[in-house]
């Protein structure tokens, strides 16, 4: 791990940045760490995949600044937990591999930069269903379809059969590992749904959301598949209403009929799930989650809202758990399996967690960036509960958004603040802007001027160039950050479906279960206790370097 610049800044004199020595010494320390970096070529016992829905590079950069400003700093010198990971790649969200080939990188020639391309078979700019199928199932697919190859057609039930593709979560469970899903969206949403469902439409949450033709042809809704397709040990997120019969009162909002159950088939999927598992527990609020003892359950389902969970800035901290709390509970339960585990963590950056995407779609940047910060806190907490010696942790996004920040703002300017100079129309504007979306506004024939403190409000909509009901995804590549066994496989510019293959190879999962080293990995006995050594080592290196260099 590199030495955090933010820590150096805290330990350095206020004017240290003005001297060349400050930058030269810092660069030398990073160079020494880079030279000492060696590939961890052993196989992974555990895999944690954090997916920031809609968390493009501009969101990552803005979230870094926001994190620093939340801590009282100027922000630019801050560093996210995910940014301490030593290996990085870029993923293509759109495009195709010539000849359909997939080449794993040579282990002896690792490169630190990897980029992933996120397009789907039929779209230049993708959605969360097609991308989820890529990074979880290992194949590019059509937009709006889940867990199906490109031969399936959106909305056409009959094209489902024979075109199903299994996710890495499903393959990990078949290999004897415990598996879990943590999301800030409904657990039937496209991103987590790709981990277990095969659906010609991402919108078939419950049978009530399906056309009669699809039901007649034998297709099952996503909520049904959540319970019946894969034996998932931990399921935490929202989505209660899709699990219970129509008009069933919601336990948290019993007086609100809009939150009632929606199922037309009369099935209580929560009851079915509980009855089919030994040692299973269901909870619907934070109190219930906190009461679950890590060693008392083999299966845990927690559904904390009828639909998506609330944004972090709107969350009731006494009734709803955060993505950090859900992640910790999941890891503590899953790591008890001596064969290891696979955990998918989805924060939407208001789309893994999952609400990042939703925040951007609504044009509310503060909601989106707070979700990104919380996802990063979940990454940090998972790192404290596991060890990079046996756990491969990957952080990525499914796609980006038409979100940007600029305007020649000075150092320390609030990330939600105004640009220092007015625009050509003589009106103020915020540093953060959207290319399109609901923030477009014309009043009295002109663009309204942005102002403080209104622009700092959590529900403020930044201005957009093109009027749309909801802001759109963007098509640029997304970053992939990795640490742990085989993390060096994430390098260069890759197709997004490569993510699933690299993780499967690292953990000896199908179709790589018989690769060299896998038999020895299955025999090996790994410890599962939390190891604080990596963080302590980083801190010691930073302080020692300052003492020696000073």
TrEMBL record:
UniProt keyword annotation of Cell membrane present: yes
Entry annotation: catalytic residues: 128 (phosphoserine intermediate)
Compartments where located: Cell membrane
Binding site for Mg(2+): 53, 189, 191
Domain of life where this protein originates: Eukaryota
Catalytic reactions on record: a phosphate monoester + H2O = an alcohol + phosphate
One GO term describing the cellular component: side of membrane
Single GO MF descriptor: alkaline phosphatase activity
Keywords associated with the record: Cell membrane, Glycoprotein, GPI-anchor, Hydrolase, Lipoprotein, Magnesium, Membrane, Metal-binding, Zinc
PROSITE patterns per record: ALKALINE_PHOSPHATASE (PS00123)
One protein family per Pfam: Alk_phosphatase
Enzyme Commission identifier(s): 3.1.3.1
Region annotation (Disordered) ranges: 244-265
Cofactor binding annotation: Binds 1 Mg(2+) ion.
Keyword Lipoprotein: yes
Amino-acid positions noted as binding Zn(2+) in the UniProt annotation, renumbered to this chain: 53, 357, 361, 398-399, 473
Named cofactor requirement(s): Mg(2+); Zn(2+)
Membrane topology: Lipid-anchor; GPI-anchor
Family: Belongs to the alkaline phosphatase family.
Subunit field text: Homodimer.
Protein name (record): Alkaline phosphatase
Gene: Alpi_1
């Amino acid at each position: 791990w590199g030495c955090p610049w933010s820590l150096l800044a805290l330990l350095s004199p206020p004017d240290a940045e003005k001297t060349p020595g400050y930058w030269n010494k810092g660069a030398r320390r990073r160079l020494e760490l880079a030279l000492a970096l060696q590939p961890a070529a052993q196989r992974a016992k555990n895999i944690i995949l954090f997916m920031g829905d809609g968390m493009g590079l501009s969101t990552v950069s803005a979230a870094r600044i926001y994190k620093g400003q939340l801590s009282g700093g100027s922000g630019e010198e801050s560093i996210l937990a995910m940014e301490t990971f030593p290996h990085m790649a870029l993923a293509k969200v759109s495009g195709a591999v010539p000849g359909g080939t997939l080449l794993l990188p040579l282990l002896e020639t690792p490169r630190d930069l990897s980029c992933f391309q996120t397009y789907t078979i039929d779209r230049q700019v993708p959605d969360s269903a097609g991308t989820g199928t890529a990074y979880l199932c290992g194949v590019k697919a059509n937009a709006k379809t889940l867990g199906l190859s490109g031969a399936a057609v959106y909305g056409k039930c009959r094209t489902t059969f024979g075109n199903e593709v299994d996710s890495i979560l499903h393959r990990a469970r078949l290999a004897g590992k415990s598996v879990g899903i943590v999301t800030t969206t409904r657990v039937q949403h496209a991103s987590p749904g790709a981990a277990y469902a095969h659906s010609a439409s991402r919108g078939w949450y419950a049978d009530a959301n399906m056309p009669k033709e699809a039901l007649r042809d034998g297709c099952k809704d996503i909520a049904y598949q959540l319970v019946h397709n894969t034996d998932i040990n931990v399921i935490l997120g929202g989505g209660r209403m899709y699990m219970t019969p129509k008009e069933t009162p919601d336990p948290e909002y019993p007086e609100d009929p809009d939150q009632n159950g929606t199922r037309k088939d009369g099935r209580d999927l929560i009851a079915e799930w509980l009855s089919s598992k030994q040692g299973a527990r269901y909870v619907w609020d934070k109190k219930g989650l906190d009461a679950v003892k890590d060693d008392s359950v083999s299966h845990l389902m927690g559904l904390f809202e009828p639909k998506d969970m609330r944004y972090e800035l709107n969350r009731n901290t006494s009734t709803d758990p955060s993505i950090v709390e859900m992640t910790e509970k999941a890891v503590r339960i899953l790591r008890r399996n001596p064969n290891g585990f696979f955990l998918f963590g989805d924060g939407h950056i208001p789309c893994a967690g999952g609400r990042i995407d939703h925040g951007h779609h609504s044009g509310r940047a503060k909601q989106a960036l707070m979700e990104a910060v919380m996802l990063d806190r979940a990454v940090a907490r998972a790192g404290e509960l596991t060890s990079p010696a046996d756990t491969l942790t990957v952080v990525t996004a499914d796609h980006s958004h038409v979100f940007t920040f600029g305007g020649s703002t000075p150092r320390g300017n609030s990330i939600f603040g105004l640009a220092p100079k007015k625009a050509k129309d003589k009106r103020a504007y915020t540093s953060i802007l959207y290319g399109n979306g609901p923030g477009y506004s014309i009043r009295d024939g002109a663009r309204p001027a942005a102002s403080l403190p209104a622009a700092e409000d959590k529900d403020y909509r930044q201005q957009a160039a093109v009027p749309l009901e909801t802001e759109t995804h963007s098509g640029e590549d997304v970053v992939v950050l990795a640490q742990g066994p085989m993390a060096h496989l994430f390098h260069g510019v890759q197709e997004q479906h490569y993510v699933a293959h690299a993780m499967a190879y690292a953990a000896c999962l199908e179709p790589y279960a018989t690769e060299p080293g896998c038999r020895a990995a299955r025999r090996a006995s790994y410890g599962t206790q939390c190891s604080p050594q990596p963080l302590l080592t980083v801190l010691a290196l930073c302080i020692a370097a300052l003492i020696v260099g000073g």
